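A brief tutorial aside. Many learners find it easier to grasp structure tokens once they have seen a single protein encoded end to end. The record that follows does exactly this for HEAT repeat domain-containing protein. Read the sequence first, then the structure, and try to relate runs of similar tokens to stretches of the chain.
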Amino acid sequence: MTFVEGLDKRELLQRFGGELSQARFVSFDDQNAIEQFGLFGTVLWVGQCGEWAFVYEDYGYVGQIPEVLHTISAGTRAVSVLNHEVNGHTWFCYAEDGTPIVSAEPGTLLYTNPSPQVQELLRRAGFSDAPTENDDYDSLQIMSALAEAAGVRLTKEAIADSPLLSTFLKNPFSDFVEDVLSLGADEQTANRLLDLLNSWEHRERILNFFNDGLQRERFPRSHDLDQRWQKEYLGPMVVKILTALQSVQITLPLLSALETANEEMRFAVRELLKILIDFDQMYDQQGARERLLMLSGASEPELALQAALTLGARGDQRAVEPLLSLIPVYPNERKIIQVLGRLQESSAKEPLLRLLNPQSKEIDYQRDLLKALEHIGGGAIADRLLLFLDPEPTSSRAGNFQGDLLKTLLRLHPPHLLDALLALLHPYPGPYPDFTPKSGFQMSLIATLGHLGNRQAIDPLAQLLVLDVQGLSLPEHYLQVRLVEALKQLGDTRSELEEIAAALQREDSKFMRRSFSTLVHPSPENLL
């Protein structure tokens, strides 16, 4: 906290380096205003207490910098006190007419040989004699006494009773924002931006500023900002600045810095490039697709992936090559496969076919591959997919793959699909004592033949019907259910179908009662 004698609030704010154009009266409990100011710089609160104006910095120490003390104390006196609540650090500064008199930890002043002005302050503060071992002073007590001895009288009413004039401390970032908004971007803008990203003091602020302005859903909001202010003020401001940056081809110097900068700056540059990709995705302005194409070849795979996916989502076929090149880097990234499918580029056919693996644990990834190949389409793809059909899958994963493959082939509907499917139909209805991937394949195959709608499948399917359904295992029972459904779907009108359907329904009731009884009264074998 810094006090200056004889100045009004606005003059102190100007000397201190506050942004006067944004200054307004704000109460301490107005969190929206505090967060808004905090986006641009250290929040300042300015008030008046008697003949002294004071400025409180929200987590700052600018008032203790010698150059600032020189400016604010010109023609008057200034006192600046710092008390860090976390580590207990205290510091006291005093200046007269532009000259810093003291800048020290308060407790040390009692044990040194200070200047006459400081000796006079100590005397007025009640510390004229050298301390003895019985004296028990803490630094905060000494600092408060010195401030009062200098004439500072801060009352609770001066802070709590009325709003204080508030703004933020001007800094290179806020100057950058103001200049781009008022003057636009030029050849120096890129250098200024890179300097900000290279500064630990400003890099987080600039990234939070752009993220909050775009309200990026995948990036957690850094502030609890007022939604209306964000939409009507911050959002348009950020869009204008990013548009100006894109107008001076900011992507090129950022990519260059990505190759040469230190790790901290590379992180900041990488995050800003992600923001620019999101911006181009949201607004698709002139040159956006060329920028995305450039970034899809970036050495950073994370950037290249985001840019290529965004370019592909725009329907640009130039995204195919970078997306294919990123598959080895991101072997299970479903979004790559999904975008390639939507682009329907035939050059992706072979790479996608090579990724098909019936035994893969990544079931959803394999489904995306089948769907992408279906979108690309063509008889050649259907023929290649037929080669993956296997009537005897050896695992549940392989069985799931076969079921998805049958659905895909049904939608592609190649002309010779019926013959290929009938060749895989098991000539006997069992035995299937337990549910297995093999029995599951036959059920899916029968359902596919029914959906295919070709009446030539009726006789081969009808040969699998069992007239006496009593004593069938549960898998055999449901295989008969699928047969009846498929035959009805194909338009088979034989009388036996209704009889078998009725018998199966009666058996369904028995299976249900048997299952319920097992749950209520489990056998010892089931308990083990």
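Self-check: Residues 516-528 have pLDDT under 50 and may be disordered. If you spotted this yourself, you are ready for the next section.
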